[in-house]
UniProtKB/TrEMBL annotation:
Its EC number is 2.7.1.39. One of its GO terms (molecular function) is homoserine kinase activity. It comes from Aquibaculum arenosum. It catalyses: L-homoserine + ATP = O-phospho-L-homoserine + ADP + H(+). PANTHER family: AMINOGLYCOSIDE PHOSPHOTRANSFERASE DOMAIN-CONTAINING PROTEIN (PTHR21064:SF6), AMINOGLYCOSIDE PHOSPHOTRANSFERASE DOMAIN-CONTAINING PROTEIN-RELATED (PTHR21064). The gene is thrB. Residues 27-257 form the Aminoglycoside phosphotransferase domain. CDD domains: HomoserineK_II. The keyword Kinase applies. This is Homoserine kinase. Belongs to the pseudomonas-type ThrB family. Keywords: Amino-acid biosynthesis, ATP-binding, Kinase, Nucleotide-binding, Threonine biosynthesis, Transferase.
């Protein structure tokens, strides 16, 4: 349950007054999500999401995340728009935490992925990349190749508890990726965590993209690699090339990618697998006993990594 911080009613009322909103008609904690405390708030003026930023989100990064959502929304991307309070600022403090309010998006995230989801996702991901092209702020991706070794070192001594031989296998993969990671593919603002639980649909159409708290500047094709992993494997672990083809083809219709981007996809997909494997492994080995939030299984991403290691070219992803 991701409500780490309780909000006293009198503080909420004062907070809403700063936005010219209120009173709260309903105010409910949202159980989903693991990073921040989220609340659904209904006011006479409409529905909003209130987020209190917990410690894993660096305060210095909040202007980038919130500014990006505002920028993208103003260019027609279906993402939450932060509200400005009457003092003009987006970010305030509530219950001792940095806090912001964003618009509520309709739709539900898909529990079971169908090919049309991947097609819609490809179109909207490409639009997001284009719309972010003139966003003036930037933020390095601290979970790209240079960020993986510290995570690996933090997990290394206990990795074999999770899968026998894992420390050696990950060490070899990391060395390979460090030696071969591309230097100069087309880059810009990427979402970097566009998993199904961050994408809303209604009647087979994409209605919203949320959770921009890993957004950063990196290769556009790396965002596609993250999506290939998160959307194109079946629950039994099988790769679905039809879904991959639909995702990539829909993306390419909006933002054509270069031959270099296409050729780099297998390597980027290995990197994307290692990134989510390592963060999950770290959380798996370090979560407090009896914590509310159950860590995600890192082995899912080890299997994806092993799949991409066998891929010999982008044709495996259904494209020519
Ligand atoms: N703008 C929005 N409109 C409607 N629902 C939203 C919105 N933002 C968040 N939610 C709801 O809150 C839930 C948690 O949001 P989110 O995924 O951003 O949480 P988090 O804890 O910040 O991130 P993470 O998924 O990385 O743990 C979502 O699954 C969704 O149900
Ligand atoms: N999407 C991440 C969780 C952090 O948002 C994962 O599945 O490991």
């Amino acid at each position: 349950m991701a409500v780490y911080t309780e909000v006293p009613p009198e503080e909420l009322e004062a907070f809403l007054t700063c936005y010219g909103l209120g009173p709260a008609l309903t105010f409910k904690g949202i159980a989903e999500g693991v990073e921040n405390s989220n609340f659904l708030l209904e006011t006479p003026q409409g529905r909003y999401i209130l987020t209190l930023y917990e410690k894993r989100v660096a305060r210095d990064d909040l202007p980038f995340f919130l500014g990006l959502m505002e920028h993208l929304a103003s260019r027609g991307i279906a993402c939450p728009t932060p509200l400005h309070a009457e003092d003009g600022a987006i970010l305030h403090e509530l219950a001792g935490r940095p806090a912001a309010m964003v618009t509520f998006l309709e739709g539900l995230w898909p529990r079971r992925i169908h090919p049309f989801h991947c097609q819609e996702l490809g179109t909207h991901l490409a639009r997001l990349h284009l719309a972010g092209g003139d966003f003036p702020l930037s933020r390095p991706n601290n979970l790209s190749v240079t960020g993986w070794r510290p995570l690996y070192e933090a997990c290394r001594s206990r990795a074999d508890e999770v899968v026998p031989g894992l420390a050696l296998e990950l060490g070899n993969e990391l060395a390979f990726l460090e030696a071969h990671w591309p230097q100069d593919l087309p880059a810009g603002v990427i979402h970097a965590d566009l998993f199904p639980d961050n994408v809303f649909f209604r009647e087979e159409k994409l209605t919203g993209l949320i959770d921009f708290y890993f957004a950063c500047n990196d290769f556009y094709a790396y965002d596609l690699a993250i999506c290939l992993n998160a959307w194109c494997f079946e629950p039994d672990g099988a790769f679905n090339a039809t879904k991959a083809r639909l995702l990539l083809a829909a993306y390419r219709n909006v933002r054509p990618f270069s031959g270099a981007e296409l050729d780099a996809l297998p390597l980027l997909a290995r990197g994307a697998s290692l990134r989510f494997h390592l963060t999950r492994l770290y959380d798996w080995l370090n979560h407090p006993e009896g914590a509310f939030v159950q860590p995600k299984d890192p082995r899912e991403y080890l299997d994806k990594l092993r799949f991409h290691q066998q891929v010999r070219g982008p044709g495996a992803y259904g494209l020519d």
